[in-house]
Amino acid sequence: MKYGSLRSGFGQWLLALAFAVLFSLSASAQDVGGTIAGNVHDSTGAVLAKASVEIFNTATGGVVKLTSNGQGEFTAPSLRPGTYTITASAAGFKKAVEANVVLQIGSKQQVSLSLV
Question: Could you tell me if 72 and 41 are in contact, meaning their C-beta atoms sit under 8 angstroms apart?
Answer without folding.
Answer: yes
